[in-house]
Amino acid sequence: MTLTMNEIYKVIKSEGGKTPADKVKEIANEYPDKIAMRYKELGIWNETTYRDFWLKSKYVSMGLKFFGVNKGEAAAIHSENRPEWFFADIGIQAIGIVSVGLYPSNPAPEVEYLLSHSESKILFAEDQEQVDKALEVIESLPKLEKIVYFEKRGLYSYDHPKLMSFDEFLDIGKSEYESHPEFVDEQVVKLEDDDVAMMIYTSGTTGPPKGSMITHGNMRWVATQIPHFPVADRLNEKDPQFLSYLPLCHVFGRLIDELIGIHVMATINFAESIDTVQSDLAEIQPTVFPAVPRILEKMHSGAMVRMKDASLLKRTLFKFSMVLGSYAVERKLKNGFDDIYAKFLLSIGYVLSFRTLRKKLGLINAQSAVSGAAPIAPEVLKFFMTLGVPLFEAYGMTENCAYATSNSSEKIKLGTVGVPNEGIELRLAEDGEILVRSGGVFKGYFKDEEATNSTIDADGWLHTGDVGVYDGEFIKIIDRKKDIIITSGGKNVSPSEIENNIKVSPFIKEAIVIGDKRKFLSALIGIEFDTVSNWALRKNIPHTTYRDLSEKEEVKDLVWKEISKANSKTSSLEIRKFRMIPKELDHEEGELTATQKVKRNVLLEQFNELIEEMYS
Predict the structure, then answer these.
(1) CB 329 within 8 A of CB 385
(2) Disulfide engineering: 184 pairs with which of 7, 58, 280, 491, CB 3.0-4.6 Å?
(3) Structure confidence by residue, pLDDT tens digits, 14-28
(4) What pTM was estimated for this model as a whole?
């Protein structure tokens, strides 16, 4: 027997939310055979019950205890999303150890910084690639006592005293557990609200990443709000299916997969790899679809390109369905999501064209979808709504557990991040900075009291660093406070608004607006290589590399047309000139953060000649 969603929410409302470890323990005791996870191995789906989930997590806890990792000390995980990530994370948190997540793309120097700064004593590493990064900097990490690897492939010949397989680690934990079977259960209930559960490192766009300390109290408080989450309150089936692909070391992935997913007793399906997300989506057809703008933009551009290559009949049906869908969305935005005529129009579009497209996108069963972590263009949101996917933009950050404001079917305004969520106090400072106060506000930055004091004031208000304005009762994000451009004429410009308008184009992947202390605005543009390459082939334009393609005059003309479209939609100054970025931006070369955000200052320095050329 499994609880209905209404019954689950009733329990949360009456008893409050729990920490992830405490909730896994509860489900394992009450519904031991409920499927917690599904993962693919050699093309075959394997399942893990909540009983096994909790048992393996306890083995991890006991293994950590055996190696002398104490409450308040840190253990790190460096891996793609996979069941072992959950076993390790829940096992770490269950006995009061601090969990530290690393991005799989973090290069060795960043691994050294994060492990050293967090003072991690144990590292759970996915495979040979991540083990090699740790071993490269091991001499600089005297506090790191063990590297526990999940996958043995390629590591059989490695001989290092600090190396150990996950199976060996679990065997030790199992032996310790059999000697002290009640230890972990006892520790879970002893966790205090002020105890740190995890450290999530900021993206580091302007300097070294800072370790944000998220407490068990933060987790309990945010979990208590789950029945009010727009991404959760639309769920209406017993066994929701989640696809875990957002990095679990990021607050957004942790919120959706670990906190919400476990509380609603979802089955977490793991993408086979980061490269197979689209095919895994199509196979699993998840109930909930959380996404960052970059993913949604890519899906949007891919769908539009596919339709250009479709047969005349399919293109005609798609165009007609888009007209119906667009009108339906306008009615929904004006009259509410229960508008009967809008539903009727969407049902026609669904039958004629959208059912097939949604199935290919993996969104045929999507009851709820949310965009977060960065601004998104309203046109992209509207595209998915036109397909009948209930996609809403939300706003949050690591420092408030990604829970601040959101749009919903009851209250929505495109171009805004919605209204304050349940339990959130929000106000604007005199300079427009968004201030938030709630039980989800983090404890502070690890070993950085100065940054903590400048971020959380004496009254408990979190200074987000984002500038916003009220649009009626809705909040509209203008930009990061530090990124706002002031032209030589004194005009304040939000670069992100213009950049998002430009990136609506399926041909443009990156747009960096320039203009601080300049007479006019310009932009550095990075193309979406696959889409532009497809376009060039259909135009019989020969090309080889990314640089070669981006330097074609025909491509520059294409990009200027797309910029001109964006200029017609912007509420501020227009882009007068642009230059093509001659390479694809890369995290390992320091141009992007681990979350794929552009390091603006790095690019301004790296491509300074191109910039000055536009103003000479």
Answers:
(1) yes
(2) 58
(3) 999 999 999 999 999
(4) 0.87
